[in-house]
Design brief:
Elements: H1 3-11, E1 18-25, H2 36-50, E2 53-61, H3 72-82, E3 88-91, H4 94-97, H5 101-114, E4 117-120, E5 124-126, H6 131-164, E6 177-188, E7 195-206, H7 208-222, H8 227-237, H9 249-256, E8 264-267, E9 270-274, H10 283-293, E10 325-328, E11 337-340, E12 348-349, H11 350-366, H12 383-405, H13 411-436, H14 450-457, H15 459-469, E13 470-474, E14 493-497
Parallel strand pairs: 1-2, 1-3, 3-4
Antiparallel strand pairs: 4-5, 6-7, 8-9, 10-11, 11-12, 13-14
Helix pairs in contact: 7-10, 10-13, 12-13
The structure holds zinc ion (ZN).
């Protein structure tokens, strides 16, 4: 209790009933932004009419009523009341006092204990000492809560509409979006507090060079590139985030998986429909990228970039050993060599093996019939049909949710229906992903200089070609000098083709 309040109580000692006023500024009553001055006037008039002596007025300012923010004024009032500061609380409406059933029960408890009466300008006296008074208070609380939730619903609906229209909902400009309209507007700089002039942006329009980058990155991921590789690419090219910061792994991942890029509107992390803007990337490619980047089997151990073509890709093969080999320089060797994970047998010199595998692949892909190695193109897949199917399944899931929410569907058939739909959706998404994934061989087959094209791929994509095309096994090599005069047994490197007539 503050000293001022204590002296106010002493002044009131003349036998007048002591009252406190509680005011709250909020926007939770639809349409009525009731100013604090108006509330105060009404409350003071009520106290005056009843001949009460107002010893303290508490004010809280919480604009979003049910957001659960702390109300220091309210807490102080309860503490003072608990010490006997007053026996009457005056408020404009009960919804100014309590924001939740829990708060109301606490208030009822205190009122009973300290003999506090509550009067509101709108609903008159509420006698919390009687069951019917308490019921009235509870009902009023429930009504206020309903109104607030209803408003929340309206706001959510409006925001969903905004999402569909592609309107910018504040925050950081998403990479790829927001072409300057040529107009300017002023805004307050958060750091300095000064007004600054900024370009007005049309968030429905793609920024051409950024859109180009997004398409390139998408294709890179679809042909086996890594997020890490793309981040490096950004650093090399000086491409930054929309705020001008160096691109991070998370930035890149988020950008690639942003549904907006594919023309899909998202609200609260849920797809809400087709947005009203031109997509930057095809939906099928976008879905494929999401499928790839969220695949739990995808290895993304940072810093573990392989340095060799065959580490963990070539098989051991000594005595039919099925394990993969890795590269090591241990055991006093002067050069890195492929060794079985199980550690048995000697290693094979990595540089020589890699060079040989490269030679064989380049030779195979340079042959006249190399085109036979390519997979059927994505054009054979009915992408739009698959997309329509996916949309239908999503609608079905939404319908099921609606039926269940309305109590027209039991839990068991609901979950069963959802599981089925989810499985169907997964199947369709996988097909879409397959349709969009680029065959890693397309950059090589038909290239005028296959070796040059191979070198240009970089190790990650070379390994992808390897995965798709051939399985290499390092069999037990013969000892001594080989027929070619050297000491490396090329015949012990065995190729098992996965595609073409050799397969
Ligand atoms: Zn082995």
């Amino acid at each position: 209790m503050s000293p001022q309040l204590r002296s106010a109580i002493d002044v009131a000692a003349g036998g007048k009933t002591r009252a406190v006023i509680y005011l709250r500024i909020s926007q939770d009553r639809a349409g009525a932004h009731l100013g604090v001055d108006r509330q105060r006037e009404d409350c003071e008039a009520l106290a005056e009419r009843n001949g009460w002596h107002v010893v303290e007025t508490y004010i809280d300012n919480d604009i979003s009523a049910y957001s659960g923010k702390k109300r220091p004024g309210y807490r102080q009032m309860l503490a003072d009341l608990d010490q006997g500061a007053a026996t009457v609380v005056v408020a404009w409406h009960t919804d100014r006092l309590h924001r939740s059933p829990t708060e109301l029960e606490e208030y009822i408890d205190l009122s009973e204990r300290r003999g506090v009466n509550t009067h509101t300008c709108q609903a008159g006296p509420i006698d919390l000492s009687t069951p019917s008074g308490r019921m009235t208070a509870r009902i009023l609380g429930a009504v206020a809560r309903h109104e607030s939730e209803h408003k929340g619903e309206r706001v959510a609906r409006a925001r969903r509409q905004k999402a569909l229209r592609g309107e910018f909902m504040g925050g950081i400009r998403p990479f790829g979006w927001g072409l300057p309209t040529g107009e300017k507007r002023t805004k307050v700089d958060r750091k300095t507090g000064n007004e600054v002039e900024v370009d007005e942006l049309d968030m429905l329009k793609a920024v051409p060079e950024e859109a180009e980058a997004l398409r390139y990155w998408t294709d890179e991921i679809l042909s086996g590139g890594s997020v890490r590789g793309l981040v490096r690419w950004c650093h090399d090219k000086g491409v930054t985030t929309s705020r001008g910061n160096p691109m991070t792994h998370t930035d890149m991942r988020d950008m690639l998986m942003r549904a907006r890029n594919a023309g899909i509107a998202v609200y609260r992390g849920e797809e809400v429909g087709r947005g009203q803007w031109e997509p930057i990337v095809d939906e099928s490619k976008y879905r494929a990228v999401v499928a790839i980047l969220t695949d739990p089997g995808r290895k993304t151990t940072p810093g573990a970039t392989p340095k060799w073509l065959g580490s963990l890709l070539f098989r051991c093969g000594r005595g039919e050993c099925p394990h993969f080999v890795y590269v090591t320089q241990s055991g006093g060797r002067s050069y890195p060599s492929y060794r079985c994970q199980t550690g048995h047998g000697g290693g094979r010199r990595s540089e020589v093996v890699d060079q040989y595998v490269e030679d064989v692949i380049v030779e195979r892909l340079s042959r006249d019939d190399a085109h036979d190695l390519l997979l059927a193109s994505a054009g054979d897949v009915d992408v739009s049909g698959l997309q329509a199917e996916a949309e239908q399944i999503r609608r079905r899931m939404k319908d099921l949710g609606g039926l269940f929410g309305a109590g027209q569907l039991e839990l068991a058939p609901f979950t069963e229906g959802m599981d089925t739909a989810r499985a169907q959706l997964e199947g369709v998404t996988q097909q879409l992903a397959r349709a969009a994934t680029r065959d890693p061989l397309v950059d090589l087959v038909g290239a005028p200089d296959v070796r040059k094209a191979w070198k240009a791929l970089g190790l990650e994509r070379q390994r992808n070609v390897l995965r798709a095309l051939v399985e290499v096994t390092l069999k037990t090599p013969r000892q001594g000098r080989m027929p070619d005069g050297g000491y490396f047994d090329y015949d012990a490197v065995v190729f098992q083709w996965k595609r073409g007539q050799d397969a």
